[in-house]
Specification:
One of its GO terms (molecular function) is phosphoglycolate phosphatase activity. The chain is of the alpha/beta class and 218 residues long. It has 8 helices and 6 strands; from the N terminus they run E-H-H-H-H-H-E-H-E-H-E-H-E-E. The chain is globular.
């Protein structure tokens, strides 16, 4: 167990907090929509804003909320298409972290903070980003929801204690991150530059307008 005098461990969300996901998510989702239409399925016109609203949801919840009437196998195939397209874009160098996030992570590492990521993503997605961005420079772990049977973050965070001991400070851009903080009794820094709204994050202990503001609360 960590000593009481130790700094809290930081748990970052990934998409919308570290990674500017829409650069690779938008084209991947639209490609999946095209495939669905080619298969004879009706897909309503969708704005970029609506697509961005799905970031932070796990894959199952996203498809169930958007096209609940699709057969389960079709949803799974569409999800695979999105994931494969995003990973292909990442391999081509199309992925990007938010400006200033590396400098923030460097500063937090110098201060002695332990850091991990908790993301509503698939294991292969997390592994691809870990490799592409050499995340071991800053983070001890990348926890993905797929490895926890797609459980919500509020449940997963309570299972991390043996591997990644509390206390925590949670940092993220969506309500699911706030729920994880509440579930573990942790302070929460809401990231307004991501894909959540200010209303969604109104219960945050602190609000960061940009990545560089995160460290002023730590």
């Amino acid at each position: 167990m960590a000593e009481k005098t130790a700094r809290p461990a930081l748990i970052f969300d990934y998409d919308g907090t570290i990674h500017d996901t829409m650069r690779i998510y938008r084209p991947a989702v639209r490609r999946a929509f095209q495939w669905l239409r080619e298969q004879g399925h009706t897909v309503p016109e969708t704005s970029d804003r609506q697509i961005a609203s799905w970031l932070g949801m796990n894959t199952r919840d996203m498809w169930n909320s958007f096209l609940p009437g699709l057969p389960e196998k079709v949803k799974q195939k569409a999800a695979v298409l999105v994931g494969d397209a995003m990973k292909a874009a990442l391999r081509k160098g199309c992925g990007a972290w938010y400006p200033g996030i590396r400098e923030t992570l460097d500063a937090l590492k110098r201060k002695g903070y332990r850091m991990a990521v908790l993301s509503n993503c698939q294991a292969s997605y997390g592994a691809a980003h870990w490799q592409a961005f050499h995340m071991e420079q800053w983070f001890e772990y990348f926890f993905d929801c797929e490895s926890f049977q797609s459980a919500p973050k509020s449940e997963i965070i309570r299972k991390l204690g043996d591997l990644y001991p509390p206390p925590y400070i949670v940092i993220g851009d969506r309500y699911s991150d706030l729920e994880a903080a509440k579930s573990s009794g942790s302070p929460f820094i809401g990231c307004l530059y991501g894909f959540g709204s200010e209303a969604e994050l109104r219960q945050a202990d602190f609000l960061a307008a940009g990545p560089e503001e995160i460290q002023k609360y730590l």
